[in-house]
């Protein structure tokens, strides 16, 4: 034994455990007669007489130094390999993002430069063409960030009971147009209604992504089958449903199948796919508490199955129709809390154009000061990611003195707001950045006009 083990009484402890429990076994350092240390595997068994009396102990000590060294070296090699694979994945991800975003930024910056030159030359006739080009590129960038958040399971999900069958049925016209005339679409539902706990818009987007992949795998035509079923419960007893999308396309080899969830991995020609479709589906389903299974065989087709937590229908609350509501703010007061000066400026300008009384705050302290000094505030529009405290914490403090204050959150990404139902209280709504200013003002009108 080492001096440290002797001082702790390890020898007596080993004999006691062997005597009381029937065996003592461990791996530990031991000392040879020449004073050198080695790793040993030690087993001590008690020996009893026929009448049950303890006679002695049988001890086997095996030198496992070489095995221990080899095991440590193997673990270090595995760790180094995992790190190398992680860095390769990060490089692939950042390279793909940089490539796509630089293309989009080139479209935005180039269009804005041309607009500026046209204005300086007082040539306004074709300005709309360049404005549309900039907006198209910006919307593509917004779509890419949304897919990246989905891949990373960091998007904001509006999880609620969703009838998967009804969602698929409502997509039928869109699917027919997407797939074309040479692809036959079939649906098969396990029951009239099948409810899942998920985000309906993300579920429909995932199904559409899978359908597009299936279409591209069937250039000569084929069939697409979408099925819903009640799936076996998980090991923890959670009930699940499955949504399967099957095609009769070219299928995938095992090598391709092993990489399908990698970001920016695609087998499509350059310019025909970002490689984020299946990554987005995978991230969304995992964030919803489910998982994805893919089965594919070259020449026979592919089946992608989404497993989602089962839910039950809840009473649908009809929202009041505010379509006829007044367009102008009529002097209603809106507090805008946003730390980005460009975003804050744009929101304030559009609110003032619509005759709202807009108050600006660049951080939570300014917002709280404004709330203390203002007699009346109808709505607070706040970013979630703010310096000092986040928007949700600001809302709690604001509502401690103004319990009926309506609050609209804006976020580009916030981990704490990943599931909206857990983040929002009554009288609170959320919008994802980037958004159209028309959409923002429509949401503000909806909240202010709600009873």
Q: Which oligomeric state applies?
A: single chain
The CATH architecture of the largest domain would be: 2-Layer Sandwich
Bulk shape: extended
Q: What's the structural domain tally?
A: 4
CATH superfamily membership of the largest domain: Histidine kinase-like ATPase, C-terminal domain
- The CATH class of the largest domain turns out to be Alpha Beta
- Averaged pLDDT, please? 82
Give the class from helix and strand content and strand pairing.
alpha/beta
SSE order and pairing:
Elements: H1 3-7, H2 10-21, E1 24-31, E2 37-48, E3 54-63, H3 65-120, H4 127-151, E4 160-163, H5 164-170, H6 172-179, E5 183-189, E6 195-198, H7 200-216, E7 222-231, E8 240-247, H8 254-257, H9 277-287, E9 291-297, E10 301-309, E11 333-337, H10 341-353, E12 357-361, H11 364-373, E13 379-383, H12 391-401, E14 406-411, H13 420-423, E15 428-432, H14 437-449
Parallel strand pairs: 5-7, 11-12, 11-13, 13-14, 14-15
Antiparallel strand pairs: 1-2, 2-3, 4-6, 7-8, 8-10, 9-10
Helix pairs in contact: 3-4, 4-9, 7-9, 11-12
